[in-house]
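Hi again,

Forgot to attach this to my earlier email, sorry! This is the prediction with pyridoxal-5'-phosphate bound. I've pasted everything inline since the attachment limit keeps bouncing my files.
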Amino acid sequence: MDWINKVNTPCYVIDERRLRENLEILGDVKRRAECKILLAQKAYSAFATYPLIAEYLDGCTASGLYEARLGYEEMAKFGRENHIFSPAYRDKEFNEISKLCGHIIFNNAKQYEKFKVRANGVSCGIRVNPEHSTQDHGIYDSCGEFSRLGTTINELNDLPEGIEGLHFHTLCEQNADALVETLAAVESKFGKFFGKIKWLNMGGGHHITRPDYDRGLLIKTVKNIREKYGFEVYLEPGEAIALNAGYLVTTVLDVFKNGMDIAITDASAACHMPDVLEMPYRPNIQGSGMPNEKAFTYRLGGNTCLAGDIIGDYSFDHVLSEGERLVFEDMAIYSMCKNNTFNGVALPSIYLLRDDGELKLLKEFGYEDFKARLS
Ligand SMILES: *Cc1c(COP(=O)(O)O)cnc(C)c1O
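Structure tokens for the complex follow:
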């Protein structure tokens, strides 16, 4: 880990070896389940690593025009697929989307009817809502009351002419048991259409590369449904692709007391790891423990003026000192593609730690990046 002191902070470091390990697992699942797996770019869109991802996966999926264009430019060139789902398409963007994407998923039949004549040669699908929640993160539960994501069976009497696929996405960081339950709900409600479709996309939220994930159950579930109906199955995880495959390295800027020891870092929860506040969760720091587990406990926070820009309380074996570096784990996903320049805080640089240990600076950001988004 001698690279920790070579990087400029704050920075994300993508760990190519870890990424490849995840891709090996996903490649194995694909082969055994005989399904296709796409990268959901909203979780991870470090396109410098798309050549590696394209060796293992079938393509990527987008949430809107810009991600679709990124997938087209950086993934489709390897002969891989480019899919998109958006809750509602914008009229002025649709023609371009239909050129970039081979598969377009609509949130309801009305959206499909509106755009279908402009979706020439595109395989079109509809997102369904099985109304079966398996998690309690309200913000990520697309099956909650009055959900705006997907069509309920009450609103879908017939499969519109020309629709080739169905899509559902209801999971978040879940195991295969939640998929089994959800698929049963989808089948009981929408199974009457299963004989007419060419593909079923089971969305993301499958934590396939987590050590305790039941891959055998996933493979069995996918195989069974495929063989029963004869359609193609897609999975489109985001997290699972780059899970634990990146770090956020930060420098301690100051240490002081207010009832407890407080340390300010040049990484901000609000700017650089927004899911810490939004999800919320506690990221792990290499060599740290829970509060009071080790000798010295600190509250770590970023250098913005937001009182709540707090990463969490951590304990260490030693006293933290100014200039010291800390390494946050699992920072490749929902980080680079979600960060912001609130308070004029600089965006972290992005490095790639190659398989062979070589460190490569992929990108640095500066004042111009901050200013370019303002007017
Ligand atoms: C967010 C999302 C994904 C990826 O979800 P992960 O939790 O990162 O696996 C896939 N498909 C759709 C439609 C999504 O909204």
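The first strand starts at residue 11 and ends at 15. The pocket of pyridoxal-5'-phosphate is lined by residues 40, 42-43, 85, 169, 172, 203-205, 236-240 (CB under 6 Å).

That should be everything now.

G.
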